[in-house]
Write a structure and sequence with these properties.
The complex is a heterodimer. Chain A is mainly beta. Chain A has a domain at 41-50 and 63-171: Sandwich (Immunoglobulin-like), CATH 2.60.40. In chain A, 12% of the residues lie in helices and 41% in strands. Chain A has a five-stranded antiparallel sheet, with no helix packed on it. In chain A, strands 6-8-4-10 form a four-stranded antiparallel sheet, with no helix packed on it. The model of chain A is unreliable at 11-22 (pLDDT under 50). Chain B is mostly beta strands. Chain B has one domain: Immunoglobulin-like, CATH 2.60.40. Chain B is 11% helix and 43% strand. Chain B contains one helix and ten strands, in the order H-E-E-E-E-E-E-E-E-E-E. A five-stranded antiparallel sheet of chain B has the order 1-3-9-5-7, with no helix packed on it. Classes of the chains: A mainly beta, B mainly beta. At the A-B interface, helix 1 and strand 1 of A face helix 1, strand 1, strand 2, strand 3 and strand 10 of B. Strand 1 (25-37) of chain A pairs antiparallel with strand 10 (155-167) of chain B, so a sheet runs across the interface.
Chain lengths: 172, 168
């Protein structure tokens, strides 16, 4: 191509480039988008029977009775946690007689979302805190079941025996 | 043959291009103003819950609005874009899915082509929001609703949105 044609082409391109650049205007602005999700961690225990109590029985001589409690852990912390069971007082009836502790057993299921039971076989309920469940490594919310079984090894006096059990969670 | 005449012609046309176009040069400005929130520079959804506390239902829906004010001295149409620049993540790198945010656009005096008049999931990247019928000044309102997913990991999530006006 001859030089003069190149100049002609460049001239035309320059003209249109100028016209285009001048005809179009732009403006931009950037802002942040933010939200704060509040941390939360709670453990909810529901017994199958009304009133929030775990009712075992009636228990007949040489008999046994079982009952389950459902535990739901709500968390968005994203950290592993463990659940403890704390027997806060011994089983006693209205006359002060004690239920043989070795005859009150419990076991814990694995979680629905990867948490692991620490008490897979029926074990006597002990005084003080006992770790019963550990979350998965991500600390996902989970739910599991505790099964309580009364299997006294000897005859016990009649009466209504009560105790307080606390289920609580702890972030690790 | 000398190129001098062509060089002169090229220069003349370049200047002519500027001269012809200069009077028609379009000036467009954009002002972005969050309507609610503690920090009026940002689209701040504040505090929200992703799980229930003390047996109560979580308050996990938050609505915020952004006002876009466009001033144009041209009679030409203009187009407005919205661009989410990065995933919405917290300091640990956990992502809050963008489709949890729905947005829609409304014009103070309906005239132009509003592309998202009803709630639509927000996506990463650019979306065109509006095309004006002509130049001039206008106000648009973009309404964002966040439905925090149940169990979403706690933390402060951040990203940026760029708004862009292109006039013709």
């Amino acid at each position: 191509m001859e030089t003069k044609h190149l100049f002609t082409l460049a001239t035309v391109l320059c003209f249109f480039w100028n016209a285009e650049a001048s005809a179009q205007g732009t403006a931009t602005e950037t802002i942040g988008m933010e939200i704060n999700i509040e941390p939360a961690f709670s453990v909810e225990t529901t017994a199958d029977q009304a009133g929030g109590n775990i009712e075992l029985g009636p228990l007949l001589p040489h008999g046994s009775a079982t009952q389950t409690a459902h535990v739901i852990v709500y968390t968005n912390r994203g950290q592993p946690y463990r659940i403890t069971q704390h027997l806060k007082q011994d089983f006693q009836n209205e006359f002060g007689a004690e239920f043989d502790p070795s005859g009150m057993l419990f076991s814990v299921s694995n979680g629905l979302h990867g948490g692991q039971s620490e008490v897979t076989d029926l074990t006597p309920v002990k005084n003080g805190p006992t770790v019963i469940f550990t979350s998965n490594r991500r600390g996902d919310a989970d739910e599991f079941t505790i099964t309580y079984a009364a299997k006294p090894k000897k005859l016990i006096p009649a009466g209504r025996y009560r105790a307080q059990i606390k289920i609580e969670g702890e972030i690790q | 043959m000398s190129n001098r005449p062509f060089l002169l012609l090229a220069a003349a046309c370049f200047i002519a291009g500027l001269a012809v176009a200069a009077p028609a040069r379009c000036e467009v400005t954009l002002q972005v103003t969050p309507v609610e929130g503690a920090e009026l520079r940002d689209l701040d959804f504040g505090d929200a819950q992703s799980i229930r506390l003390s047996g109560e239902a979580p308050s996990n829906t938050v609505i915020r609005r952004v006002k876009l004010t466009i001033n144009s001295n041209s009679s030409g149409r203009y187009q407005i874009f919205q661009q989410v620049n990065s995933p919405w993540i917290n300091t640990l790198g956990t992502e809050l899915p963008l489709p949890a945010v729905k947005f829609f656009v409304s014009e103070s005096t309906p005239q132009g082509d509003v592309r998202f008049p009803s709630p639509t999931p927000l996506i990463l990247g650019e979306q065109d929001l509006y095309i004006s019928p002509s130049g001039g000044n206008r106000e648009l309102l973009v309404t964002y609703t966040v439905q925090v997913p149940t169990g979403q990991t706690a933390g402060t999530y951040h990203t940026t949105i760029t708004y862009r006006v292109v006039s013709q």
